[in-house]
Amino acid sequence: MINTGHLIKFRRELHSYPEIAGREKSTAERLGRFISNYNPDRIISRIGGYGIAFIFKGEEPGKKILFRADLDALPIKEISNMEYSSVYSDRAHLCGHDGHMTILAGLAEALNINRPLKGEIILLFQPSEETGEGAARVLADKKFRESANPDYVFALHNLPGYPEKSIIINNNIFSSASVGLTVQLHGKSSHAAEPAKGNSPVKALSQIIDALYSIQDNKEIFTDFVLGTVIHINLGEKRFGTLPEYGEISMTLRAYRDDDMEVLRNEIVRAAVNICEKEKIKCEYEWKEEFLSLENDSFAVDIVKNAAYNLDLETIEMTVPFKWSEDFSHFTKNYRGAMFGLGAGNDHPALHNPDYDFPDEIIATGINMFLNIYRLINQ
Ligand SMILES: [Zn+2]
Ligand SMILES: [Zn+2]
């Protein structure tokens, strides 16, 4: 039995002081102070930004297993009125990363009580998950490659809408690839009464929207699910006498598979470039927040299922991948591993909702899952 009283207190402290992607400095320091009490053999800080890792070494040789949590909160105002609500009005832990961090902190405590016999355990706290930048930055960091370099990688995400403490897993693709695309359109302004003397980007803009929908509806060019969503449009100014000269459209592209994503990206860019050429509009484009498709390794999935079985937890096998994305995908592209969901309760507010708060009841389940995974691999 894990006593979680002090862990709940720590989770709530993290919740009160959230930091968004790229600014997780004091969160990493808080973790450093808390986990140092549990005597890790090594601490590596400033990995890929404010990332921090704690390494526990066994006496005997064995597999190196990395467990990953995420440091960042969201730039959304929290509406829950709790004693430990975010002290800031513009950001909050509404994806439960405070809970994921607490699970790894609790794992550190458990590893201090029962020091690992074999191999090595790396507790990695990764920055900038929400923007899809952190995992790639950690992997590119020399400090990580030289001192961590795991044999297996595992992570969990709490999932509202599933029974509390259930384990949700998919043997193959867990979550989708996604990327943001902004197309900038430069035309020429004129008097609004004489549009022929200028060149408004409005026609190109509307054709790009049409193209996005007809491309994603063209089932013949894709193997599986793809989705394009327009998320922002900007055209001209509110000056009624003036024809707009600048327009901009942003969209999010999604696909279960990386190869479908490649096709979707190429098709939409080709369409936009052709449309702009035809409309004599200068066009530029920019990619943002790129996530890969998260593919689980089948051995790692079996380990997760066995751990859930050992702990007598309900296991839910997914029939289709999640449509959202997770940048843990960068880890599973480089190492054998798996991500699984940990049920946060059927009626729990959804992730990223302003009234979401991580359920403390599932902290111990997360710790036990990771401990079991370590033991199953290094027994
Ligand atoms: Zn999130
Ligand atoms: Zn998240």
- CATH topology name of the largest domain, in short, is Aminopeptidase
Which term fits the overall shape?
elongated
Q: Report the average pLDDT across residues.
A: 97
Topology as a string of helices (H) and strands (E): HHEEEHEHHEEEEHEEHEEHEHEH
If helices are DSSP runs of H or I spanning 4 or more residues, what is the number of helices?
10
Write up what this structure looks like.
- The protein has helices at 5-16, 25-36, 97-113, 134-140, 142-147, 202-217, 258-279, 298-310, 329-334, 363-377; strands at 42-47, 51-57, 60-70, 118-126, 152-159, 167-169, 173-175, 177-186, 226-235, 246-255, 282-291, 294-295, 315-317, 336-343.
- It has 379 residues and is α/β, with parallel strands linked by helices.
- An eight-stranded mixed sheet has the order 1-2-4-3-5-14-6-13, sandwiched between helices. A four-stranded antiparallel sheet has the order 9-10-8-11, with helices on one face.
- Strand 3 (60-70), helix 3 and strand 4 form a beta-alpha-beta unit.
- The two termini are 21 Å apart.
- The model has no long low-confidence stretch (mean pLDDT 97).
- The structure holds zinc ion (2 copies).
- One zinc ion (ZN) binds at residues 95, 130, 351-352.
In short:
The protein contains 10 helices and 14 strands. The chain is α/β, with parallel strands linked by helices and 379 residues long.
